[in-house]
Amino acid sequence: MRLQVSEPGMAASAILGESIAVNGVCLTVVAADSRTLQFQVGPETLDRTNLGNITPHAPVNLERALRVGDAIGGHFVSGHVDAVGTLRERQASGDWQTVWFTYPPQFFDLLVIKGSIAIDGVSLTVVDVERDRFSVMLIPHTLAHTTLGSQVNGGAVNLEFDLLAKHVQKLFQSLTATPRFPIP
């Protein structure tokens, strides 16, 4: 699939081959002009993300890749989506919202209270975790400036679990597994 996104501020300075996250999915710019960016989206990406559900003129979250020396304003987000989740419930508290999402059960061990998660590319702090769902708190700025403010109940979202948690999980799994190579 070829995905075209209209974003004059970013498109005018885009470089062919540059990585840009679209709804949290790292994609490569294959064409750009002063108003639009174009990306090629392959079958693997369509199978594992919500990009195949995007309709014409729908808003998306866009973010350029972090460059060496840039300030990190959240947690490490790679743009490599782990799973698709579903927005299940919004609880308003003044201008703020607690939002609950479901997720595939195999990722339960990667979610911790006050840990990090990226939802559609937005770096957020986990508020609460249950076996089948987790919550985040969305501030008015996030609600107004990302797609999370307009996402509907039942809507699919891209989930990227914390990169450091994934590495720690793999390390612990490998410590309890049978070694593949004998240690001398």
Approximately how much helix is present in the residues? 10-25%
The N- and C-terminal alpha carbons lie at a distance of: 50 Å
Percentage of residues in strands: 35-45%
Number of helices: 4
Query: What is the strand arrangement across the widest sheet?
Result: 6-7-10-9-8-11
What is the C-alpha radius of gyration, as a whole number of Å? 18 Å
Instruction: Characterize the main sheet.
Output: 6 strands, antiparallel, barrel
Described by the principal axes of the CA atoms, the overall outline is globular
CATH topology of the largest domain: Elongation Factor Tu (Ef-tu), domain 3
Order of helices and strands: EHEEEHEEEEEEHEH
Structural class: alpha+beta
Roughly what is the average pLDDT, rounded to an integer?
A: 92
CATH architecture of the largest domain: Beta Barrel
Number of domains: 2
For this structure, what is the CATH class of the largest domain?
A: Mainly Beta
Tell me the number of strands. 11
Poorly predicted segments: none
Per-chain topology:
Layout: E1 2-6, H1 8-11, E2 19-22, E3 25-32, E4 36-40, H2 43-48, E5 62-64, E6 83-93, E7 96-102, E8 116-119, E9 122-129, E10 133-138, H3 140-145, E11 156-161, H4 163-176
